[in-house]
Design brief:
six-stranded mixed sheet, 10 helices, 13 strands, about 35% helix, globular
Length: about 280
């Protein structure tokens, strides 16, 4: 039996092969999307194009978190388990993981990390967990350090469609109405695990310019956040790479990574959605 393992939900946009070669058991626990009465499991085989096509055919589309059993059945693979979830304010994944933990014979050996965000932030937390494990720290030390690390992360996003955020209660209708106008492009953030509108900008080019400045300001304010920037996108690799190149001109991140969104994040971000985490 391995000493440590890491579990994460599919809001991380990761595949099960992410930690291949690290000698740390790792598994992505999938959420489920119901689009046009068709069920899509957010695993490595999900067809994002088909899901989005079905979703646009119907106004009542939903997502569902995994059952506690999905986490519980994995706990015997290691002595200690770390679980990283999408923000508890917007999904039941965290609660499902906590229920699973409390159902286990040794709940003290399971630590559930509420990312207070999604996608790239979850990836950054996992990368940090791997680093702390490799440093040989104790389980208790890792738990303490990963919470402190999580609290220093930032998430910004620009979406061009807000239908599912509004329809599923993740964003207020008033904010959604403002966001859905043809002229205003809001820059939003994850604030204490919830969606908050940071700036309302006219035009997508101006929005990108403001976003780059926000990333630059945050980069210089927080030395701890200079390691890696992750940009995830829903069918918008062109703008994601544009932001990557422009940010690289003003911020000396050690790495800027562009990744496509999987099912859950595509469900909420929709086409052309962009999320930046560091």
């Amino acid at each position: 039996m391995k000493k440590f393992q890491i579990l994460v939900d599919s809001a991380s946009d990761l595949s099960n092969s992410y930690l291949q070669g690290e000698d740390i058991p790792f598994k992505v626990i999938p959420l489920t999307i119901l689009a046009n009465n068709k069920e899509y499991i957010d695993d490595d085989n999900i067809d994002i194009d088909a899901m989005l096509t079905d979703m646009h055919k119907c106004k009542k589309n939903t997502s569902a978190c995994p059952a506690p059993q999905s986490f519980l059945q994995e706990f015997e693979n290691a002595e200690y388990t770390f679980i990283v979830t999408i923000t508890s304010k917007l999904s039941g994944c965290y609660n499902a993981a906590v229920v699973a933990k409390n159902s286990h014979s040794k709940p003290e050996n399971i630590f559930v990390v509420d990312s207070k965000a999604t996608c790239g932030t979850e990836i950054l937390i996992i990368d940090k967990l791997v680093k702390l494990i490799k440093e040989g720290l104790s389980y208790e030390e890792i738990c303490e350090k990963i919470v402190a690390y999580r609290d220093k992360k930032s998430l910004f996003f620009i979406l061009q469609k807000f239908d599912n955020l509004i329809n599923n209660g993740r964003m207020s209708k008033i904010a959604g109405l403002i966001a859905s106008t043809l002229v205003i492009r809001p820059i939003c953030i994850a604030k204490e695990g919830e969606i908050a509108m940071l700036k309302k900008v006219i035009g997508i080019k101006n929005a990108f310019s403001k976003l780059i400045q926000l990333i630059k300001d945050r980069f210089h304010e927080e030395p701890e956040n200079r390691e890696k920037l992750i940009i995830t996108h829903c069918k918008n690799e062109q703008d994601a790479n544009y932001l990557k190149d422009e940010i690289a001109k003003v911020c000396d991140f050690k790495e800027i990574e562009v990744r496509p969104m999987k099912g859950l994040c595509s469900f909420y971000a929709l086409e052309k959605g962009l999320i930046l985490c560091h």
